[in-house]
Design a protein that fits this description.
Blueprint (H helix, E strand, L loop, with lengths): L4 E7 L3 E8 L5 E8 L5 E2 L2 H10 L9 E6 L5 E3 L9 E2 L7 H10 L3 H8 L8 H11 L1 H6 L2 E3 L1 H10 L5 E3 H4 L5 E2 L4 E2 L1 H8 L7 E3 L4 E4 L5 E3 L2 E2 H9 L5 E6 L3 E4 L14 E4 L5 E7 L3 H11 L3 H9 L9 E3 L16 E3 L7 H27 L5 E5 L6 H11 L3 E4 L4 H15 L12 E4 L5 H13 L2
Length: 459
């Protein structure tokens, strides 16, 4: 075991990614991955198998480990620690009606935001517990403990025992007070119909537990919080992540409680806050267009760049599988402006413009709530590397954009948390920022105006 190596994990919607990192400078020494099953409801035990495969040969080389995981997912366990039902993931919208009910029970949107920092939507764990109560009463009745995905994997690492979590991921459950930094267990009980066990909340820099071999295990955190830690966000920084979901996030020293529900007031992984606006449809907008046109993402980008600004009048409202920002869980996609002259290039361009307009709306909501001017916009995520995104994003977002080199930033943030816990320091380790490219373009408001017209017309 080398004292200067730490292991960071991203247990995401699609896979487990493991990066072995030099704790002194953040240099990646080795990395491995293993896939997760598809779907919005999965057996969480599949994540444990993926963890074991992704960390094979890496775990013995590390002195500390932390898990970054997809936010919100409901892992309901019986008294023996076995799942009573498939884990409902953040993008499972079957609990949208439960969200409406829980908000009303809390006294309305303003009261809900004041209680837990955010207005509940179908993504939040509490709504999934209520759905379980109403639709799977036997499973709900057998539920003894409720964990988040990263908590479930963390306990696997230490071989069982008391579960633990962090304030960042806990703040996305709907039963954690961001004002008090503490669970609201009565809200979890109200959601599922009886008291349930919740994990111990560990300080951002704390060692939560150790494995029998002496491996130190950090608190872990949510995927967005881990990415923010990896990028060392400061005031004025806005991160726009283009993955399965789209996320605009920024660190804040003050708590956000937005009663409109546009911005979720999460905690971060450092003791501050991480307000964000989240879309359910991001890279999947491009995925659909790739399937329809029979091309890969690279070719889709080339086609898009061959079409004019505005895609010759084709505009897309890309809420294909419902949407979270704006909160339209039952929405479907809408295309307008199709003519017999619409080309493959137009269809490709319209997809990129819709994606970026949706994210621009999220950035505007975020900065309007925090009062911070976005002095730096960072684009991350799988789709952020597409040249069409580089070319179109500055014009649609209305500002230069910086694209860090591709990297596993959730896993790197988890690794930085592990190094922080291992060091015993009061501050995270100082690692060099990743190499990055900055792109500029003249703002073009016409695309956003056409998008906004369609968005508001179909509300």
């Amino acid at each position: 075991m080398a004292a200067d190596l730490v292991l960071g994990i991203d247990s995401s919607t699609q896979s487990t990614k493991a990066v072995l990192v030099d704790a002194s400078d953040g240099r990646v020494v080795a990395q491995q991955t293993a896939p997760h099953p598809p779907g919005t409801a999965v057996d969480p035990r599949a994540w444990l198998d993926a963890f074991d495969r992704a960390t094979e040969g890496l775990l013995p080389r590390a002195s500390a480990i932390s898990i970054g995981g997809q936010q919100h997912g409901m892992v309901a366990l019986d008294a023996a620690g076995e799942p009573v039902f498939d884990a409902l993931l953040w993008n499972d919208t079957r609990s949208s009606g439960a969200a409406v009910d829980l908000i009303a029970e809390l006294g309305g949107p303003e009261a809900c935001a004041e209680a837990v920092g955010s207005v509940l939507v179908a993504s939040f764990t509490a709504t999934k517990l209520r759905w379980l109560r109403d639709h799977e009463p036997d499973a709900a009745g057998r539920t003894h403990e409720v964990l988040l995905p990263h908590d479930y994997v963390s306990r696997h690492v230490v071989g069982g025992g008391e579960a633990f979590t962090d304030r960042g991921d806990a703040s996305g459950t709907g039963y954690f007070s961001t004002a008090d930094d503490a669970w609201r267990p009565e809200l979890a009980a109200a959601a599922i119909g009886h008291a349930v066990g919740l994990p111990r909340v560990v300080a951002p820099c704390g060692i939560a537990a150790k494995t029998p071999t002496g491996l130190a295990v950090g608190a872990g955190t949510g995927d967005n919080m881990a990415a923010a830690l990896a990028l060392d966000l400061g005031p004025g920084d806005v991160v726009v992540s283009i993955g399965t979901s789209g996320v605009a996030s920024a660190v804040s020293a003050t708590r956000i409680a937005d009663g409109t529900g546009s911005v979720t007031g999460f905690a971060d992984a450092t003791g501050r806050f991480l307000p964000m606006a989240t879309t359910m449809n991001a890279a999947r907008i491009l995925d659909l267009q790739c399937r329809l046109l029979g091309v890969d993402h690279d070719e889709l980008g080339r086609l898009a760049l061959a079409a004019p600004v505005g895609a010759n009048g084709l505009t897309i409202s890309p809420y294909y599988d419902g949407e979270r920002t704006p909160n339209r869980p039952d929405a479907t996609g809408t295309w307008v402006g199709l003519t017999s002259a619409t080309s493959r290039e137009d269809v490709a361009r319209a997809a990129f413009e819709a994606l970026l307009c949706s994210l621009a709306d999220a950035v505007d909501l975020l900065t309007g709530m925090t009062g911070e001017t976005a002095t730096r916009i960072l684009l991350v995520g799988g789709a952020a590397g597409n040249p069409a995104v580089h070319a179109l994003a500055p014009a649609i977002l209305g500002a230069p954009v910086t694209v860090p080199a591709p990297g596993e930033y959730v896993a790197l943030g988890a690794a930085r948390q592990a190094a922080w816990a291992w060091s015993g320091s009061t501050e995270p380790p100082s690692w060099a920022p990743p190499p990055a490219e900055t792109y500029t373009a003249a703002p073009n408001p016409l695309v956003r105006e056409a998008y906004a017209h369609l968005r508001d017309r179909t509300s």
